[in-house]
Amino acid sequence: MEHDDDLLKLEKQGLPALPPAVRTEYVDATGKTSHIWFSVFGSGPPVVLLHGGMGNSGNWAHLVPELIKGGYSIIAIDSRGHGRSSWNGHPFHYTLMASDVRRVLDHLKIPKAVFVGWSDGADIGVILADESPERVRGLFFFACNVDSSGTKPFEMTARVERVLAYHRQQYAELSPAPADFDKIFQAVQAMQSNEPNYTPEQLARIDVPVTVCVGEHEEFIAREHLEYLSNALPDATFELLPDVGHFAPWQRPEAFNDAVIAFLGRLEKRCG
């Protein structure tokens, strides 16, 4: 796959379309005032993909085909208020988003899965591993903070501008409320500024296999924070992806995909 380190290709061409789905549906979110969109691809052991803030399931366009080839069933979920999923206007909370994921799993009758989370999706994965460890076979945690000390000062670079423009375009095309991008953006920022707030003692109880991964040039999260996270979790390893930042799945998808697939392979050997 071609490199797109500055995301110029993303700006000009966007991302490839996801492959044909096995099924695509909505489920009622917790409280039944929002509706959560999901698609299922491939067949095999279940892997749930959780995208980042302001994104959607299409953000996994480079990863999904590789997981299908690897013999996995992929469940890609649009978080509430993102992509095709609706929003009831209430404040966002990672715990609510985690409960939405459980509703999708219940609907599909999936008792346990591996989770791959990018940014906000990684925090949703941590909450699932904390609240429902019996449902989490493993977590690939990419590029997010678990308390407020882990973030870097925000800098609006040309690369970040390209990503926001792409998110805005995608939101207008997919959302049931296409004019609400700025409202959603503010609500997501409010959540990110206050959540999550895991202490070392709380992290120590999350005893599921985790790979904590970050790009060498991560823009938003301090590498030291992710090293701390990998040390605080009892069953975690740390992985650094060279030459990429927060948008590694788009910048160098082959390297990101290889890291995810290697994690899945380690789980297979370990858990059978």
From TrEMBL:
<feature type="domain" description="AB hydrolase-1">
    <location>
        <begin position="45"/>
        <end position="142"/>
    </location>
</feature>
<dbReference type="InterPro" id="IPR029058">
    <property type="entry name" value="AB_hydrolase_fold"/>
</dbReference>
<keyword id="KW-0378">Hydrolase</keyword>
<dbReference type="GO" id="GO:0046464">
    <property type="term" value="P:acylglycerol catabolic process"/>
</dbReference>
<dbReference type="InterPro" id="IPR050266">
    <property type="entry name" value="AB_hydrolase_sf"/>
</dbReference>
<protein>
    <submittedName>
        <fullName>Alpha/beta hydrolase</fullName>
    </submittedName>
</protein>
<dbReference type="InterPro" id="IPR000073">
    <property type="entry name" value="AB_hydrolase_1"/>
</dbReference>
<dbReference type="GO" id="GO:0016020">
    <property type="term" value="C:membrane"/>
</dbReference>
<dbReference type="Pfam" id="PF00561">
    <property type="entry name" value="Abhydrolase_1"/>
</dbReference>
<dbReference type="GO" id="GO:0047372">
    <property type="term" value="F:monoacylglycerol lipase activity"/>
</dbReference>
